[in-house]
Design goal:
alpha+beta, Aldolase_TIM, 11-stranded antiparallel beta sheet, 16 helices, hydrolase, Glyco_hydro_b, hydrolase activity, Glycoside hydrolase family 97 catalytic domain-containing protein
Length: 643
Amino acid sequence: MKHRVGNIMWLFVLTAFFFGCEPEGSGVSMTNQEGTLRAELFLDDEGKPFYQLFHKDSMVLDTSYVGLILEDVDLSKGLTLDRQKPVQQISESYTMFHGKQKDINYSANKYVVSFSSESGITLECHFNLSNTGFAFRYRVLGNEGKPITITGESSSYGFPKNTISWMQPMSKAKTGWSETNPSYEEHYKMEIPVDEPSPIGEGYVYPALFKTGGSWLLVSETDLHEDYCGTRLIYEEDKNGLAVSFPQKEEVFPGGGLLPKGKLPFITPWRIISVGDLDQIVESTLGTDLAAPAITMDTTPVKGGLATWSWVLLKDDKIDYETSHQFIDYAASMNWPYTLIDVNWDQKIGYERMQELIDYAASKGVKIILWYNSSGDWNSTEYTPKSKLLNSKDRREEFAKLKKMGVGGLKIDFFGGDGQSMIVYYHDILKDAADYGLLINFHGATLPRGWHRTYPNLMTMESIKGEEFVTFDQAVADLQPSHSAVIPFTRNVYDPMDFTPMVLDSIPHIDRRTTTTFELALPILFTSGIQHIAEIPEGMAKMPKAVVEILKQVPTQWDEVKFIQGYPGKEVIMARRKGTEWYVVGINGEGVDKSWSIDLSFTQNQTGTLFYHNGTKIPGIKAIDKSLTEIEVEPYGGFVIKI
């Protein structure tokens, strides 16, 4: 890669900004309130708008383009910088129902810059610069009510030379088991050049992590509404950077559209970048800060917690009445509020006996979550219930039946991609489910992109190569330590993730690489509104009482997160607070012994418990106080502290 060296006009504009001359229409300089982020917006000699981004006066993004391409108008070039509205200081407070932080405050400087075109259509670029976040979106103005279709974006990210990245390849649509791709279920490529082609050939998904100089950046999108498609990143030589690209043609609801479409005025989702030191990336809430506020709904049923789940270790043969009954008892004994009953329950158990299980679970203080197949004919999956959610009439009839039965929520699997019509399907399910008080977990699905703020009943989404893949393939199990150690820096930063973590004992036919305390750390390290636990009753029964007791208390709605130390794919130490209690966890993603120095002085309580590896599958347990400063961890090991 090389830096783009501008022409004479570009140099004149740059000089104007730094020496006070401001020729009409030349550009805009933007900063956050703290003065740590600065963006400079210009037009090149072809009328293409672009910006550069600086963190603490170091360039973190070189020439990065903005603009849209409509079906009949190109708003990426031939533009004139028309006007800039006065900078607006915005401030907002909101509350989340689950995740890294309950009460969140967001403040930023907002800039609105208008570009005119010969067509008469105006492109507004909205930029928000917060303490550690840079974000932009587009608003297209013209004849009100005029239909438009967007065929592409010129949005790009021009990273400086020697930037390294952690990115997950996008899969090819209609490949994989029963043609169920894409589902955001590839392993991350780690520490690769920004211009390294995806091994699958379809670019990379969000969130994507970058390190340039001493700064880190995490790129994603949020507020993905019904009129838009999900996007991804692909390197383009002509932009000398990673460009925002649209889905593959197969990623549509049958008979539905692929591309963004709507009527003027039209607004796009936010393109978001967290910028800063690594702790600021991990602790960022930018993905929900700019998501659409919560819809009006009854949030009484929205309660997070842990869940038992038989399928991940016992598979299809154990989706039956007796096993489900056992796992309800297991949930009740652990003080967990949910039990998930998976595929083909309608055939193997049936609605009538399912009602018996729901009633029994209710007597134990447990809610049942039921699996559903989302798909029509976009894949060849045969698991049932299937095709009951495809249209609003059938979906609402099914939801009404489930509400009457007392079902707590649904796990809906096997979606078909990121096309605009498929994005509408997600929104429609969430809105209908909210009307019936049903909690939702999407699997085989796209990235949430802030939807859990907009729809409080969205508890979690898979969108990751999770624990179930470890149970299928030793090669995946071998990569689990490093994979788990990259997720807190990438996929799980902005959005909830149903990794379905934690096998404390054993996995049938698999040599588990991680230690028991590594696994014990995962339900605390990863965030999910409902945390589906992979361990079964027989494995839990082998654990010491102290392990069982801590798992009875693990929150899913945290008050505060604190990143202590780590490096993507190698190690991570994280602290989460609920009330006055702190949970501090660490995992070692590498096959070497490590000695970690930690500072627990931030905790309010004086004493606690340390869970560590003791050479067997049974964790060592000892009392500690906050003066503890060093922890020894073995290859692929970990620890848990409650203090």
